[in-house]
Design a protein that fits this description.
Rossmann fold, globular, 3-stranded parallel sheet, two-stranded parallel sheet, single chain, alpha/beta, 5 strands
Length: about 150
Protein backbone atom coordinates (compact mmCIF):
# COMPACT_ATOMS: atom_id res chain seq x y z
CA UNK A 1 0.00 0.00 0.00
CA UNK A 2 2.84 2.40 0.83
CA UNK A 3 4.34 1.92 -2.63
CA UNK A 4 1.02 2.71 -4.30
CA UNK A 5 0.66 5.90 -2.27
CA UNK A 6 4.21 6.92 -3.18
CA UNK A 7 3.82 6.09 -6.90
CA UNK A 8 2.77 9.63 -7.99
CA UNK A 9 6.17 10.86 -6.82
CA UNK A 10 7.77 8.92 -9.70
CA UNK A 11 6.70 11.82 -11.91
CA UNK A 12 9.22 13.92 -9.96
CA UNK A 13 11.98 11.32 -10.37
CA UNK A 14 13.56 8.41 -8.52
CA UNK A 15 14.90 10.46 -5.57
CA UNK A 16 11.42 11.86 -4.87
CA UNK A 17 9.88 8.37 -5.06
CA UNK A 18 12.47 6.92 -2.64
CA UNK A 19 11.77 9.80 -0.25
CA UNK A 20 8.01 9.21 -0.34
CA UNK A 21 8.49 5.49 0.35
CA UNK A 22 10.84 6.29 3.23
CA UNK A 23 8.25 8.62 4.76
CA UNK A 24 5.74 5.77 4.76
CA UNK A 25 7.86 2.79 5.83
CA UNK A 26 10.16 2.85 8.83
CA UNK A 27 13.61 1.31 8.37
CA UNK A 28 13.29 0.09 11.95
CA UNK A 29 10.30 -2.03 10.88
CA UNK A 30 12.36 -3.47 8.00
CA UNK A 31 15.20 -4.39 10.39
CA UNK A 32 18.15 -4.45 8.03
CA UNK A 33 20.91 -6.97 8.66
CA UNK A 34 24.31 -5.42 9.22
CA UNK A 35 27.60 -7.07 8.25
CA UNK A 36 29.20 -7.72 11.64
CA UNK A 37 32.72 -7.51 10.20
CA UNK A 38 32.01 -4.01 8.86
CA UNK A 39 30.44 -2.82 12.10
CA UNK A 40 33.39 -4.15 14.14
CA UNK A 41 35.85 -2.52 11.72
CA UNK A 42 34.07 0.85 11.92
CA UNK A 43 33.89 0.70 15.72
CA UNK A 44 37.61 -0.01 15.88
CA UNK A 45 38.36 2.86 13.51
CA UNK A 46 36.19 5.24 15.54
CA UNK A 47 37.88 4.14 18.79
CA UNK A 48 41.22 5.00 17.20
CA UNK A 49 39.98 8.56 16.65
CA UNK A 50 38.80 8.46 13.05
CA UNK A 51 35.71 10.30 11.88
CA UNK A 52 33.10 7.82 10.65
CA UNK A 53 30.60 9.11 8.08
CA UNK A 54 27.57 7.29 6.76
CA UNK A 55 27.16 8.60 3.20
CA UNK A 56 24.44 6.61 1.48
CA UNK A 57 22.00 6.62 -1.41
CA UNK A 58 19.38 5.61 1.14
CA UNK A 59 16.92 8.42 1.91
CA UNK A 60 18.06 10.66 4.79
CA UNK A 61 15.07 9.50 6.86
CA UNK A 62 16.30 5.89 6.74
CA UNK A 63 19.96 6.83 7.06
CA UNK A 64 19.17 8.57 10.36
CA UNK A 65 17.26 5.48 11.56
CA UNK A 66 20.17 3.22 10.62
CA UNK A 67 22.59 5.49 12.47
CA UNK A 68 20.36 5.34 15.54
CA UNK A 69 20.21 1.53 15.35
CA UNK A 70 24.00 1.43 15.30
CA UNK A 71 24.22 3.45 18.49
CA UNK A 72 26.13 6.60 17.65
CA UNK A 73 28.74 4.93 15.47
CA UNK A 74 28.65 7.76 12.91
CA UNK A 75 29.91 11.29 13.42
CA UNK A 76 27.96 12.47 10.38
CA UNK A 77 25.03 10.99 8.43
CA UNK A 78 24.46 12.03 4.81
CA UNK A 79 21.60 10.50 2.84
CA UNK A 80 19.61 11.10 -0.31
CA UNK A 81 17.04 13.89 -0.48
CA UNK A 82 13.88 14.19 -2.61
CA UNK A 83 16.00 16.13 -5.12
CA UNK A 84 19.27 14.17 -5.07
CA UNK A 85 19.94 10.42 -5.23
CA UNK A 86 23.35 10.26 -3.57
CA UNK A 87 24.74 7.39 -5.62
CA UNK A 88 27.80 6.87 -7.83
CA UNK A 89 29.22 10.13 -9.16
CA UNK A 90 26.96 12.25 -6.93
CA UNK A 91 28.26 10.52 -3.83
CA UNK A 92 31.80 10.89 -5.13
CA UNK A 93 31.29 14.61 -5.68
CA UNK A 94 29.88 15.05 -2.16
CA UNK A 95 32.72 13.20 -0.45
CA UNK A 96 35.41 14.91 -2.52
CA UNK A 97 33.86 18.31 -1.73
CA UNK A 98 34.02 17.50 1.98
CA UNK A 99 37.36 15.64 2.24
CA UNK A 100 39.23 16.20 -1.02
CA UNK A 101 40.36 13.72 -3.65
CA UNK A 102 42.03 10.83 -1.82
CA UNK A 103 41.10 12.35 1.55
CA UNK A 104 38.85 9.54 2.75
CA UNK A 105 38.54 5.77 2.91
CA UNK A 106 35.38 4.23 1.53
CA UNK A 107 33.36 1.11 2.35
CA UNK A 108 31.13 0.02 -0.53
CA UNK A 109 29.49 -3.02 -2.04
CA UNK A 110 28.33 -2.44 -5.60
CA UNK A 111 29.15 -1.22 -9.10
CA UNK A 112 28.20 2.44 -8.50
CA UNK A 113 30.73 2.45 -5.64
CA UNK A 114 33.58 1.99 -8.11
CA UNK A 115 33.46 5.74 -8.83
CA UNK A 116 33.72 6.51 -5.12
CA UNK A 117 36.52 4.02 -4.59
CA UNK A 118 38.40 5.67 -7.45
CA UNK A 119 38.45 8.96 -5.53
CA UNK A 120 39.22 7.39 -2.14
CA UNK A 121 42.54 6.82 -0.43
CA UNK A 122 41.64 3.27 0.55
CA UNK A 123 38.87 0.93 -0.56
CA UNK A 124 36.99 -1.49 1.67
CA UNK A 125 34.76 -4.07 -0.03
CA UNK A 126 31.60 -5.17 1.76
CA UNK A 127 29.72 -6.74 -1.14
CA UNK A 128 29.10 -10.23 -2.42
CA UNK A 129 29.32 -9.86 -6.21
CA UNK A 130 32.52 -11.35 -7.60
CA UNK A 131 32.34 -9.12 -10.70
CA UNK A 132 32.56 -5.99 -8.49
CA UNK A 133 35.39 -7.53 -6.46
CA UNK A 134 37.35 -8.22 -9.69
CA UNK A 135 36.88 -4.65 -10.95
CA UNK A 136 37.88 -3.24 -7.57
CA UNK A 137 41.00 -5.43 -7.56
CA UNK A 138 42.09 -3.68 -10.80
CA UNK A 139 41.16 -0.20 -9.53
CA UNK A 140 42.60 -0.54 -6.00
CA UNK A 141 44.82 -3.64 -5.81
CA UNK A 142 45.41 -3.31 -2.06
CA UNK A 143 41.73 -3.05 -1.10
CA UNK A 144 40.49 -4.54 2.18
CA UNK A 145 37.85 -7.25 1.72
CA UNK A 146 35.40 -7.36 4.62
CA UNK A 147 32.57 -9.00 2.71
CA UNK A 148 30.52 -11.53 4.62
CA UNK A 149 31.54 -14.30 2.21
CA UNK A 150 35.29 -13.68 2.31
Amino acid sequence: MALLKAAPALCRGWPAFKWEVAKRISMIAVRPAFNGRIVAFLKSEKESGREIVLCTATPQIWADQIATQLGGLFNTVIGSTPELNLKGHRKTERLVSLYGEGGFDYVGDSTPDLKVWGASANAIFAGHREAVRRRLRILKPGFLDLSANH
